[in-house]
Amino acid sequence: MSLRIDQDHSRFKQIVRGRIRKNLRQYISKGELIGKQGKDVVSIPIPQIDIPKFRYGSKQQGGVGQGDGDEGDPVGAEEGEGGTGQAGQDAGQHALEVDVTLEELAEILGEELELPNIENRGKSKIIDQKDRYVGIRRVGPNSLRHFKRTYKAALRRQITTGTYNAKVPIVIPTRDDMRYRSWKTEEEPVANAVILYMMDVSGSMGDEQKEIVRIESFWLDAWLQRQYKGVETRFIIHDAVAREVDRDTFFRTRESGGTMISSAYKLAAQMIDEDYPPSEWNIYPFHFSDGDNWSVDDTLLCIELMKKTLLPASNVFCYGQVESPYGSGQFIKDLREHLDGDDRLITSEIRDRDAIVGSIRDFLGKGK
After folding, report:
1. In a domain, 258, yes or no
2. Which residues have C-beta within 8 Å of that of residue 61, sequence separation ≥ 6?
């Protein structure tokens, strides 16, 4: 019975996984998963899954294969039944919510977008301790007793002393026969990553543009957390001045005034210099903007900061330009002009929510 239940549960998970994968682009573009996120799981609405079952007709309809009818006709329904459009008293179809871990969700994302696993570049200062079983010893707790080795030791002793009876093969271990697994604690540095999110919050970045950034960052986080044991996330907002904020403030702040992108790049470079040595950390800066900048001089300063500091320190530097009716869209053109051919820079134009999937593939598709 237990095996049958496990098989059914496994099959159900495969069905759910298939439904999620089929509708993944819809989930991403609508952003409906983010509001249902728990600590480690996400509740996903999927269409109700009906289990096939036989339905018996009335006894007056004849036996199996009897009566009039053509191939394809519905079974057990009279002509004209249903479809009247009138209100009824029966329950309707409801969506079924299924809990899926963030790791499973990231795995489905990787399969659907064919994302390669990331090659870790740095090792952090954080040390992970693992216990590895390396041998057998004569003392230890009962929970680590090695039954096979204990039995062999007892059998060997009884044969040697002549107390073993082949006709009555009873083997009783003594204290000296006990064998236990021994372990060794190994320490190794854990590859960690830091994500630096930067976003223009000037008046031209409206609520829809911020929602696009919020949806995309959710999926970027999910994939990177699957690739690394520890992921730190920092948030920078900027108009003419940049400052660090928490996640909630990052997506809700709306300001006005000029835009100086260099202020965000300077703050990001300072964070890297003070807290995240590139030799020990995998660094992922993501900058989202509508492409407006205050002046050509500030754009040239951004290019200089990218060349000297941000690009050399980063696994990849990702710039996503969210289309806005008020933004000029010039900054992505300047980046491509001055940094053409540098594979550490990835740019992506995000026209609307439907473009989020392509943007995620642009940013993560190189496996860096």
Report:
1. yes
2. 67, 76
